[in-house]
Amino acid sequence: MYAANQTSVSASIPRAMQQTATPVISLTGAQQNELLRGLSREELIDLFVHLDLVPLEAGKRLFDSGELMEYAYFPTNAIVSLQYETEEGGAAEVAVVGREGVVGVTMYENERANCCAVVQTSGYGYRIKSSVLRQAFFSGGALAQQLMRHTSALFAQLAQTVAGVRHGSIEQRLCRWLLERLDRSLSNELKVTQEMIANMLGVRRESITCCAGKLQEEGLIEYRRGTVTVIDRAGMERRAGSCYSPA
C-alpha cells in the first residue's frame, strides 16, 4: 500500500530478538496503520516483538463497556466502531477508528472501558498488550506524540458527533457517517446495511431508506442491497455541511 521498505523485521533486529517475534511481520505491513507509520524506524522495530497480526472480523467485540482492556489494536484495513450502550440494550456510535489510529489505549493499570468496540468492517490489525503500549507511551518519543494526537482527534470526532445529533438533519448525519467510513476504506464501496446505519445513528430505518434514496436519485451514491458506493464525494461533503470534517 505504501512505498515503504519491504524488508521484514527479521532483517532489522538482532537474531536473539527474532526468536521471540512470532509471527515475523514486515515494516510495510505495520505501516499500513498510519499511526505506526508516523514512528521512526527504530521505534517501530522496538514494538515489533510485541505486535501480533490478527484478523478482525465484522461483528467481533474487542471489548465491552466496563471491561478491562487487555489489548490495544492498530487497524490496517479494518474499521472499528466505538459505541455507547444503554441498560435497555440500545446503542449509539460515538466514534469510528480505522487505519489512522488505535483502539484500546489505557493510561493506567486496571483501567476499564467506558464504551464498547465492535469491528464494523472486516480486515486485519496489529494487536499489542495494553501494558506494553502504556509503558512505551510513558517512555516518550514519537509514539507518545502520535497517541496524544490521536486522542485529541477522537475528542474532536466525538464533539462533532454530538453537534450533529443536536443540530444536523438525518440526511447530513447519514452523509457524515458514510464519509467517515470512506476515509478509512481502501475503495469507494462500503459494505453496510440500512439497518446498521439506522441503529448507529439512532433513527428509524425508514428515515435512512428515504435519505439514501434521495442521495441515489441525485447521483451522489449508488445503493444495492448491503453495499453503498459513493460516486460523488465532493457532493456528499457539501450535503454533510458542518456535520463532517475529514479524518
Describe the fold and architecture:
It contains ten helices and ten strands. With 247 residues, it is an alpha+beta fold. It has two domains: 137 residues, Jelly Rolls, CATH 2.60.120.10; 72 residues, Winged helix-like DNA-binding domain superfamily/Winged helix DNA-binding domain (Arc Repressor Mutant, subunit A, Orthogonal Bundle). The strands form three sheets. A four-stranded antiparallel beta sheet has the order 2-6-4-5. It has a three-stranded antiparallel beta sheet with strand order 1-7-3. The protein is globular and about 50 Å long. The two termini are 19 Å apart. The N terminus is likely disordered.
Overall pLDDT: 85
**How do the SSEs run, as a string of H and E?**
HHHHEEEEEEEHHHEHHEEH
Q: What is the strand arrangement across the widest sheet? A: 2-6-4-5
**CATH homology group of the largest domain:** Jelly Rolls
CATH architecture tag of the largest domain? Sandwich
**Uncertain runs:** 1-24
Helix coverage percent: 25-40%
How would you sum up the global shape? globular
Largest sheet, if any? 4 strands, antiparallel
Radius of gyration: 19 Å
- Structural domain count: 2
Strand content: 15-25%
Separation of the first and last Cα atoms: 19 Å
Helix tally equals 10
Query: Can you identify the CATH class of the largest domain?
Result: Mainly Beta
The CATH topology label of the largest domain is: Jelly Rolls
Number of strands: 10
- Kindly name the structural category: alpha+beta
Domain Cyclic nucleotide-binding: 35-104
Protein name: Helix-turn-helix domain-containing protein
GO molecular function, one term: DNA-binding transcription factor activity
Keywords: DNA-binding, Transcription, Transcription regulation
